[in-house]
Amino acid sequence: MVSSKLRIAFIHPDLGIGGAERLVVDAALGLQSLGHSVDIYTSHHDQHHCFEETRDGRLRVHHVIPPLPRSIQGKFHIMFAHARQLHLTMHLMCTSAHQYDVFFVDQLSTCIPFLRMLCGKRVVFYCHFPDKLLANGAYVEDRPRKNVSILKSIYRFPMDWLEEVTTTQADLILANSKFTARVTKSHFSSLRHQLKVVYPGINIAAYISPVDPSDPDVLQVASQRRTLLSLNRFEMKKNAALAIEAFAILRNKDPKTSDVRLVLAGGYDPRLEDNIRTLKSLIELAQFSGLTYNIVTPLQSRVAVPSFPKITLNEPDILFLLNFTTTQRSGLLQAQSTLALLYTPANEHFGIGPVEGMICGLPILACDSGGPTETIVDQPADQRTGWLYRPQPSVWAQALGEICNLSETDRKALSQRARDRAQQMFGMEAMAKSLEEVLEEAVSMGPVSRTGMWLVMLAVMGLLVALIFRYGSFSG
After folding, report:
1. Residue 476: its pLDDT value, please?
2. Is the confidence at residue 292, as pLDDT, over 90?
3. pLDDT digits (tens, 9 = 90+) for 430-460
4. Residue 449 dihedral angles phi and psi, to the nearest 5°
5. pLDDT in tens, 63-76
6. pLDDT digits over 22-64, tens only?
7. What is the dihedral of CA 63, 66, 71, 72, to 10 degrees?
8. How far apart are CA 400 and CA 419, in angstroms?
9. Residues 148, 156: contact at Cβ < 8 Å?
10. What is the sign of the dihedral through the CA atoms of 240, 241, 242 and 245?
């Protein structure tokens, strides 16, 4: 076993605001706290749309701006993602790759054979979920895949092959949940690795540290009204519509809940069409349901608040909070008025949201599939930390009624169980220790055998050349 401290390079495509980015940030912070040296390399890092730790000096972030776009007219996202990562990898290899002991790669596996072959260093890959299973919408286990056009099948075939063959080149492969590990193994037929599950961990201190109630950002979102909270990016696959529909049913059926509000908070990127369409559809749903709403961004945010009609500035039924700050997140999670955290995605690969709520003692309502079935205890009732139900608005509305009417004794007992489970299983320290063991295991494997990797490298380079040719034909 390696005893000296490691020099580790993280490679992550887009260091914005999301669950994968939160994991990268907390993993890097955790490994630093154990004495290791960590650098993060990324192709995109917007100082106004990122986690605070990546811009305040706590982490060393190397932002390498690529010459290629993210897409062309909203198309070819994955093709350009591969190319942008190869550009990032080439920069790393030409500048500082030699100084690292091991590489930690997540989301995109394109760079793995290059790092191993040309740098001779071991690579650990963290699998959030296979992209091939997300290309046609949200993945639903045991449901037949959607039919796609012949042209899209032709486009996706080399992309999917590339993802699988480069993933298998990693020395060690981690997964964020048993669900992800099982699905990845079943859909990557050539994968011989045994995936080890390392649950994402959170910086517990950052969630339980006292919040200044006079902070302007906290005052912006604070309310004496009882609050149901949802933390998720504004993406269609996150299904925040479920929360609005269930909330509307609850309000119509139970007059005693007229004082309850819903806060939908999450990352919003005006560059992304999905974010724009999702917010628009949610607001239209709120209007259709007869619920008042408001949209806010943090006071220092550079993102303009989108313009929508019939805004209610004072105590709306639904508050849309775009790109919340750490202080706002903590303020909402810790507020005495917050009743529960609603986690709406189905078949989520892990889902950090339930853990964030549990560490603050909140009951969790989530879908009965994917990662939340591993983080939340639904039964027996005396061990419950939350509720797991199928994503049906009427069913969720019934669960919300139960949550809103919990006795004080039951609420306190559930709150303590939730805190205990989150601290024991999903703390940043536990994740950092697990990652340290894996990274040390990778380094202890010794020199990299470069036999058989040339074919993979040539295939990846061929894809890059084809992309540049296609890009040139489109832009010309």
Report:
1. 37
2. yes
3. 999 999 999 999 999 998 876 655 555 666 6
4. -80, 125
5. 999 998 888 887 88
6. 999 999 999 999 999 999 999 999 998 899 999 999 999 999 9
7. 140
8. 20
9. yes
10. positive
- Residues 229-252: what's their mean pLDDT? 97
- Per-residue pLDDT at 471 exceeds 50: no
Counted residue by residue, the chain has a size of 476
The stretch 206-230 carries a mean pLDDT of: 95
| Rounded Cα gap, residues 350 and 246, in angstroms | 23
Query: What are residue 450's phi and psi, to 5 degrees?
Result: -95, 10
In this structure, the dihedral spanned by the alpha carbons of residues 226, 295, 299 and 305, taken in order and rounded to 10 degrees, is: 170
Q: Measured between alpha carbons, how far is 276 from 236 in angstroms, rounded to an integer?
A: 10
Mean pLDDT for 99-127 is 95
Name residue 162's amino acid: L
Going by C-alpha positions, the residue among 59, 17, 52, 19 that lies closest to residue 201 is: 19
Name the residue type at position 288.
F
- Give the mean model confidence (pLDDT) for residues 342-371: 95
- Residue 85's identity, in one-letter code, is Q
> pLDDT category, 475, cuts 50, 70, 90?
very low
pTM, two decimals, is: 0.79
> Would the pLDDT of 89 be above 70?
yes
Strand-strand pairing, 196-197 and 227-231 = unpaired
Which pair of tokens denotes residue 410?
């039951």
CB half-sphere exposure, 227, CA atoms < 13 A: 26
Identify which has the larger pLDDT, 325 or 151: 325
Q: How far apart are the first and last CA of the chain?
A: 54
